[in-house]
Amino acid sequence: MAGIASVASLQKSPSYEIYGKSEWPRDPKSVIVLALIHDEAEPDLDWWDGKRGTPGNRRIESIANNLRQWLKEDLSSDAYLLPYDVEKGGIFLKDAAVLAGLGAIGMNNLIITPEFGPRVRLRALLLDVDLAPTGPIDFAPCAGCDMPCKWACPQEAFKSGSYSRTLCNEQMKRDEANTVIVEEGQEKDVPSRYIKYCRACELACPIRG
Questions:
Q1: Count of CB atoms situated within 10 Å of the CB of 27
Q2: Which of 66, 78, 112, 154 is most buried, judging by how many CB atoms fall within 10 Å of its CB?
């Protein structure tokens, strides 16, 4: 999946109003947001090895680099593949995805798409040209939902009625303390030692397209 947002609108989004602006190369005008479908049948896409990242991230990064090369060769447009982390020069991907029309941010603090629910992974490219935005869209996935994500959370991160990043981070620390070793002979792109981060709220979401 892919969508387009303007940098000007992104800089006015909720996360930037709270945390401030990122320092991006040159003077970008547009953002292309890419979403890689993360099917439940491919849990290894999210296995984190601590060094090379995840197989899913490498896959979407390859797609983004191919798109960047095509934009340069066919349209003479410079594009910049951004790091995933905001602290390393990335953008707030969920805000960008909403503005690009890919979905809405749900009560579980994840981007929820009409087609695949929250089971997607995001990356973005910055462009130095103005492109027509493809969103946002009229989509309210959590309206009337009984929030199975709330009951699935092992840390009860929703017990106050809204998402608690602190409690969610507690689960991440537990996941990091329980590194899993994969037996030899499995798929070569899967790391031999990895962290399997919790996806309970994501997998419990009933939005599946």
A1: 8
A2: 112
